[in-house]
Amino acid sequence: MKTELRENLLAALRDGHDAWPGILGFEDTVLPQLERALLAQHDVVLLGERGQGKTRLLRTLVTLLDEWTPVIDGSELGEHPYEPITPASIRRAAELGDDLPVAWRHRSERYSEKLATPDTSVADLVGDVDPVKVAEGRSLGDPETIHYGLVPRTHRGIVAINELPDLAERIQVSLLNVMEERDIQIRGYTVRLPLDVLLVASANPEDYTNRGRIITPLKDRFGAEIRTHYPLLLTDEISVIEQEADLSADVPPHVLEVLARFTRLLRESPSVDQRSGVSARFAVAAAETVGAAAIHRAAVLGEDDPVARPVDTTTVVDVLRGKVEFESGEEGREIEVLTHLLRRATADTARESLGGIDLGPLVNAIDQGEPVVTGARVTAKALLDALPDLPVVDEVAQRLGATSVGERASALELALEGLYLARRIGKDTADDGQTVYS
């Protein structure tokens, strides 16, 4: 099975085919290490904080298996017709010869995943005596009385164990033979099954001291230990959001950039517990929350084209603060920290997106004219109608690729917020949620 993975990976590399669909930000770091581990036919453990795509990466390994593979029809462990390993299949192959029935198994059925929980038992992973088979008349020493666990049942496939340190140490011991000798031991039975499996696992490095650890003999049996990470580039962070978020409304690129920058600032903040990390799921949930805010406004105010605006990002602070772990000395300051970092993300996005545009005419017009009102209860059309008719308004919309009414309002709101954060105009937020730039 490992040779099969190796050959398919080499074929993908030679053909320039993407062997890791949907995996973003690991192209120059994690993936080369994983590819070398697979070419060396090593079992692998991925170490990294939450939300770094470890499980997604493990599941992608399935694409390197042959699409279909033959198995003995009805065999408990999905054995190859030429290589039966259980007593029952060996007996059937000897009796039936070329008439042995063959079925075809899809590669998706050759991947098994187990979340390591404290109540996981040896029977779950390896197997145990089946009292029903004993009651049917078989002797207690008969190997056919064994009920096989997850690992043997994934013979000729990939076994993935998530959060391996959460597995009790005595349960981890049961995997030692699987990892090295490629067989299993069940109670007092003398069973030697030449299992053909790739064992992969994920773990959070902090789990070694917090909830558990990977025992040294098991850790030693993994051929490769690979560290994952959060996206290193802002563009990768945005791409992850675009790929994973189920957006119910139009969320323009500059709003996604604000959320991506916000997430990255959280990962750098000394107020946030970096041992826990800030998951990529935070940015994904933030984008979905912002889209929901736009849908909510459209439903209440009767807008036909719901488009997220920078004002909608403020909902993220209230809704998602529970997804961020803060340092113990920051108790009571969570909202303050999140609001400050969101403003920084918005200011950075406005500066990068609108750099080179002279917004002076817009500042002068607001200074001399009526205040501009926006907010969660203000329609995009009302916001645009309140803006002065100036060429710079069209220039901002053009720079951000805004064409519809909702997109133009979102683009201009970013410009207004950027001017406020640069201390060029004032802003007041009323109790009813309206924001007034003046």
Question: What report would you give on this structure?
Answer:
- With 438 residues, the chain is α/β, with parallel strands linked by helices.
- It folds into 2 domains: 226 residues, P-loop containing nucleotide triphosphate hydrolases (Rossmann fold); 204 residues, no CATH class.
- Helix content is 43%, strand content 12%.
- It is built from 19 helices and 12 strands.
- The chain has a 5-stranded parallel β-sheet with strand order 4-7-8-1-9. It has a 3-stranded antiparallel β-sheet with strand order 10-12-11. Strands 2-3 form a two-stranded antiparallel sheet.
- The longest helix is centred in the middle third of the chain and has 22 residues.
- The radius of gyration is 29 Å and the shape is elongated.
- The mean pLDDT is 89.
- This is Magnesium chelatase subunit I.
- It comes from Rhodococcoides kroppenstedtii.
- GO terms for molecular function: protein kinase activity.
| CATH top level assignment of the largest domain | Alpha Beta
Count of alpha and pi helical runs: 19
The radius of gyration over CA amounts to 29 Å
Global mean pLDDT: 89
Read across the widest sheet, the strand sequence of neighbours is: 4-7-8-1-9
CATH superfamily of the largest domain: P-loop containing nucleotide triphosphate hydrolases
**CATH architectural designation of the largest domain:** 3-Layer(aba) Sandwich
Helix content: 40-55%
What are the segments in which pLDDT stays under 50 over at least 5 consecutive residues? none
How far apart are the termini? 68 Å
Query: Total number of β-strand segments?
Result: 12
GO molecular function: protein kinase activity
Domain PrkA AAA: 121-267
Protein name: Magnesium chelatase subunit I
Organism: Rhodococcoides kroppenstedtii
